[in-house]
Amino acid sequence: MEKEEVYGLGFLRWTYGNPIGKMSLHGLVKRTLFSRWYGKRMDDPESREKVLPFIEQYRLNAAEFADPPESYKTFNEFFYRKLKPGARPIDPNPKAAVFPADGRHMGFQNISEAPGIFVKGALFTLAELFRNEALAAEYKNGSIVLSRLCPVDYHRYHFPISGKAGKTNLIEGPLYSVNPIALRQNIRILCENKRAWTRIESDVFGPVMMFEVGATCVGSFEYTYQPDSQVEKGAEKGYFRFGGSLTITLFKKGRIRLADDLVKHSSDHVELYARMGDTLGEAA
Fold this sequence. Notes:
Layout: H1 9-17, H2 19-29, H3 32-42, H4 51-57, H5 75-79, E1 96-98, E2 103-108, H6 126-130, H7 133-138, E3 143-149, E4 156-158, E5 163-165, E6 169-171, H8 180-183, E7 195-202, E8 206-213, E9 221-223, E10 229-231, E11 236-240, E12 245-251, E13 256-258, H9 260-267, E14 272-274, E15 279-283
Antiparallel strand pairs: 1-15, 2-3, 2-14, 3-12, 4-11, 5-7, 5-10, 6-7, 7-8, 8-12, 9-11, 13-15
Helix pairs in contact: 1-2
């Protein structure tokens, strides 16, 4: 068990726990304008001065970076850095699906029977997530994996399976934090925030849905794959700019058996840390 080192902890507690902070949350912080303003600050050349102290404070392994820490021209450029080939080994088992990102994960074999995600009884509906009743019906009683990225994490996201990846479908929304401090108060953040989904057609797993969810200071998702193309498991899909963020992976009922430790810890409302390329489950 580890206690998470939260970047901007004081601001988070004030925004979500203080009455005046909550007023600023609804009046400013959740709005796209705020995240654009903060993101622009992280694109300023002066922001590069934050890079080396950040690496030291959060004990990041610079040896796995594709480029030297001193080479990044802005903090954002460092934030969505690439890693050296092989830094994230991909499970070669064709029946295995892998985590799409580094981070803290929760998984439920049957979302309709989940006792709650971050808090007992706190769930959201797939219809709210998709804003589409027909798509929600397809994944009723399916399996779900939530992968939460913190600012200290590697912020590129990858395909959890091989298959044909369609285009991305954007759903506009506000930009609340996806830190548990916020999610324990309102799990509906996950189906309210700005997000986008992609269908991946797989011979092994059937149609799998992958969501990218924005958050405070993460107003956009950048995509590096070609829509309507064949992709390999572990191939890069895109990256988040500055901030904490989250991906959601959905499998249809009976198509996957999630890893035992993932299911066990999630049922206790405890996140499981794993890196992109680690096994999240195997085809049923």
